[in-house]
Amino acid sequence: MDQMTKTGLWVDAVQDIIAAGRRMDRFGWVPATAGNISRRLPDGRIAITRSGGHKGFLAPDGVIEVGMDGRAVQPGDRPSAETLLHCQLYAHDPAIGAVLHGHSVASTVLSMAAGDAITLSDYEVQKVFAGQTTHDASVRVPVFDNDQDIARLCTVVAPELGRMPAGYVIRGHGVYVWGATMDVALARLEGLEFLLACELEKRKLGR
Amino acid sequence: MDQMTKTGLWVDAVQDIIAAGRRMDRFGWVPATAGNISRRLPDGRIAITRSGGHKGFLAPDGVIEVGMDGRAVQPGDRPSAETLLHCQLYAHDPAIGAVLHGHSVASTVLSMAAGDAITLSDYEVQKVFAGQTTHDASVRVPVFDNDQDIARLCTVVAPELGRMPAGYVIRGHGVYVWGATMDVALARLEGLEFLLACELEKRKLGR
Amino acid sequence: MDQMTKTGLWVDAVQDIIAAGRRMDRFGWVPATAGNISRRLPDGRIAITRSGGHKGFLAPDGVIEVGMDGRAVQPGDRPSAETLLHCQLYAHDPAIGAVLHGHSVASTVLSMAAGDAITLSDYEVQKVFAGQTTHDASVRVPVFDNDQDIARLCTVVAPELGRMPAGYVIRGHGVYVWGATMDVALARLEGLEFLLACELEKRKLGR
Amino acid sequence: MDQMTKTGLWVDAVQDIIAAGRRMDRFGWVPATAGNISRRLPDGRIAITRSGGHKGFLAPDGVIEVGMDGRAVQPGDRPSAETLLHCQLYAHDPAIGAVLHGHSVASTVLSMAAGDAITLSDYEVQKVFAGQTTHDASVRVPVFDNDQDIARLCTVVAPELGRMPAGYVIRGHGVYVWGATMDVALARLEGLEFLLACELEKRKLGR
C-alpha cells in the first residue's frame, strides 16, 4: 500500500471520528471531556480520540494511532486509558470497524440502579442490533462495575464477548457499542440510547 | 404528462421527504434507522424511503418508487417492510398525499402501558387534527399490537380507517400520521407527539 | 410619516416576529401550527402572525396587519382567532410593544393540574418579570380556563390586567407574555417557561 | 505591554465569552437574561458580561472590564451585581482564568430540595473535577442560600474556597464553576450539570 493510500485511509477515519463526535455531542452523550471514539482502518491501523479534549469539537490532531496493545504509535501521544476496551473488541472480531463509548444520563442512572444487566423487551428498535429480527424477544445488555484499572475491566468483559448484540454498559459510566462501519456503530448507539431512555421513563411510571 | 414534468414532481417529493426526515431527526423521532416517510405525487406515484439508512441524513437515492402493492417499481430497490401501511392509507383515501412514521420515547412508552387506545382530552392542540374544532372533546388514538407480519397488521388497522383523526400508534414501535400535504402531515405529527409528551408527564405526576 | 419610513417599520416588525418564531420553535413551544406572535409598531400598527402555518418557519407574508378590534386591515387576510388577546394587552397598556403566545409541555401539563393560578416562589429567575427585584417573593401566574370563544375569554382575563407581571396561562393551551420590546417579551417567555419547567420537575419529586 | 497586545488579549477573552454564552444557551443554562461569564486576561484584567441582555446572543460590547472590586473600569458600564462572586474566585486563586455562572432546571430544583450540599458519588464523570482521579469517591457540592446582597453572599462562600472541586450552587439560582482556561471551566460546567441531571433522574426513581 503506497503512502497516498495510507494517508487517504487515515483522513477518512479521522473524518468519521470527528463527525461521530459532533453527533454524540448533539445528544449530550459526550459531556465535558467524556467519551471516546475509534475506527479500524482497512489496513489494520486503529485511529482513536486523544485523551482529554471535548469530543464534540474534535480537530484532526485530536485523533491518534494506537496499536492493538492500546499504546500510542507516536511517542508522546497520549491515548485514553479506555483505549484497551476498544482494542479488546477489535481483537475479538475482525469484522468490527468502529467502536463508540458515550455517557448519557439514561445509561448512567439505569446502570447505577441495575444488577448485572439491563434487559430490553418488546421494542421494535431492538431490530437495529446484530441478529435481531423481531421485537418479540429480549436483548440482554450486560452492566459491568466501573473500574479505573482498565486491564482488569477487560478481563471482566472478556467472557461476554460475542454475546452482546446491543453493546454493554459500565456502571455509572456509559455505554460501549460497535459495528462493521461507523454508520452501523452510530445506528446501534442511537438505538441503545433510545431504548435506555424508554426504560428510564417506564421506571418513572412505576412499571 | 411529459418526462420533464414527471421528473419535477419526483424531485419535489424527494425534497419534501428529505426535509421531513431532518425535521423528525431534530426531535429524536427517527433514531438509528427507524421511521419511514412517503409522499404520493399528483400523478399517483408513491415515493418512500428505502429500507435501512438514517432518515435524518437522507440523500435523493434514499427515496424509491413503490406501487400500491408496496413493491418497488425498480427491480433491486428494497422498500421498508412497513411500506404496506403507507399504501393502505393511500388506497383508503385519495386525499392523502403524505404519510409519516416515527419513533418517539413518549409514543413507545405510553403505548406499552396502554390498552387498545390512548385518549387525548381538553388540549387546545387537538385542533390540529382533521375535523377537530375545539379542545372540549376527546380524540381516540388507537394502539395496535406490534407485528413483524405487516400484511397481517394491515388487516388489524383496516377496520379503524376513516376513524383516526390523530393517526395511530403501534405498541412499542411508533406513530403513523398522514395528511393531504407533507406540511399537514408534519403538523399533525408534531401535534400528536406534543400531546403524547404531555400525557407522559401527566402520568408521572400521578394523574 | 412617509411611506419609506412606514415600510421600514413594518419590515423591522416582521423580522422580529420571524426571529421570535424560530427561537420558540427551537424550544418546542410552537408545535404544529400552534402559537402566535405580534408586535406593535411605533406608528401604532399591529403586526401579527397569520392563522395557520408553522411559527418556526415564518416567511414575511406569514405576518399580517390587524386593527385594535382584531380584524385584518387587508380584506382576505385571516388573523388567528386569538388575535383579540393580543389586542386586549395593547389596548390596556400603551407601553406594550410585543406579545408572545406559546405552547409548552410544562405550561400545558401544569395548568391542567392547577387551580386558578400557579405560584412561583424563591427562584432567582423571577427577577426577569416586571417589578420583581428579589427571589424572596412570590409571583402569581393566573390560569384561565380555555375557551374557543376568545371574546368571552377576554372578559375573564380583563380583571387581572395590570396584575400579571409574569403573564398568564390558558389551561391545556399555553402562555401569554409581553414586554415593551420583542427582546423583553422573549426574555420573560424564557424566564416563565424555565420556571414552569422547574415546577414540573419539583412536582415529580413529590414536593 | 504595548497597546496592540493588550487589544489582542481583550479580543481573545471576548471571543471566549461569546462562544461560552452560545454553548450555555444551547443547553438552556442561560434562560432570559440569566447567567454571567468572565475571563481573567494574562495581564490581569477581568472581562465579564454586562448586566442584562441574553448571554446566548452576546456581541463584543456585551463584555466589559471590571476591577477586582467588581466595579466597572469605564464609567457608565454596568456590571452584573454578581460580579463580586467572580472577583472573589480570581482573588482567591491566581490560577483561575475563567468563571461561569449558569442556571439549569436541575441545579435549581435540586438545590431547593437540598440541605447545605449535594453529594455526588460513584460517577465516572467526577474525574473532570480538579484533583479527582477515580469514580470511587464522593464530591461535595456546597449549596448556599440565595441572597440579593452579593457582598454578604461572598462572606458565606469564603470559608469554602479551596474546598470546592466541582464548584458550588446557589439555592434556587444556579451554579458557579471555574478553571484555568475557558475550556476547562466549560468542561467542568458540563460535567457538573450532567451529574446534577443524573441526580435529578435518580430522585425521580425514588433512589
From TrEMBL, chains A, B, C, D:
<keyword id="KW-0486">Methionine biosynthesis</keyword>
<feature type="binding site">
    <location>
        <position position="101"/>
    </location>
    <ligand>
        <name>Zn(2+)</name>
    </ligand>
</feature>
<protein>
    <recommendedName>
        <fullName>Methylthioribulose-1-phosphate dehydratase</fullName>
        <ecNumber>4.2.1.109</ecNumber>
    </recommendedName>
</protein>
<feature type="binding site">
    <location>
        <position position="103"/>
    </location>
    <ligand>
        <name>Zn(2+)</name>
    </ligand>
</feature>
<dbReference type="GO" id="GO:0016832">
    <property type="term" value="F:aldehyde-lyase activity"/>
</dbReference>
<comment type="similarity">
    <text>Belongs to the aldolase class II family. MtnB subfamily.</text>
</comment>
<dbReference type="GO" id="GO:0005829">
    <property type="term" value="C:cytosol"/>
</dbReference>
<keyword id="KW-0028">Amino-acid biosynthesis</keyword>
<dbReference type="InterPro" id="IPR001303">
    <property type="entry name" value="Aldolase_II/adducin_N"/>
</dbReference>
<dbReference type="InterPro" id="IPR036409">
    <property type="entry name" value="Aldolase_II/adducin_N_sf"/>
</dbReference>
<comment type="function">
    <text>Catalyzes the dehydration of methylthioribulose-1-phosphate (MTRu-1-P) into 2,3-diketo-5-methylthiopentyl-1-phosphate (DK-MTP-1-P).</text>
</comment>
<dbReference type="GO" id="GO:0019323">
    <property type="term" value="P:pentose catabolic process"/>
</dbReference>
<dbReference type="GO" id="GO:0008270">
    <property type="term" value="F:zinc ion binding"/>
</dbReference>
<comment type="pathway">
    <text>Amino-acid biosynthesis; L-methionine biosynthesis via salvage pathway; L-methionine from S-methyl-5-thio-alpha-D-ribose 1-phosphate: step 2/6.</text>
</comment>
<dbReference type="GO" id="GO:0046570">
    <property type="term" value="F:methylthioribulose 1-phosphate dehydratase activity"/>
</dbReference>
<dbReference type="GO" id="GO:0019509">
    <property type="term" value="P:L-methionine salvage from methylthioadenosine"/>
</dbReference>
<dbReference type="InterPro" id="IPR017714">
    <property type="entry name" value="MethylthioRu-1-P_deHdtase_MtnB"/>
</dbReference>
<keyword id="KW-0862">Zinc</keyword>
<feature type="domain" description="Class II aldolase/adducin N-terminal">
    <location>
        <begin position="15"/>
        <end position="200"/>
    </location>
</feature>
<keyword id="KW-0479">Metal-binding</keyword>
<dbReference type="InterPro" id="IPR050197">
    <property type="entry name" value="Aldolase_class_II_sugar_metab"/>
</dbReference>
<keyword id="KW-0456">Lyase</keyword>
<dbReference type="Pfam" id="PF00596">
    <property type="entry name" value="Aldolase_II"/>
</dbReference>
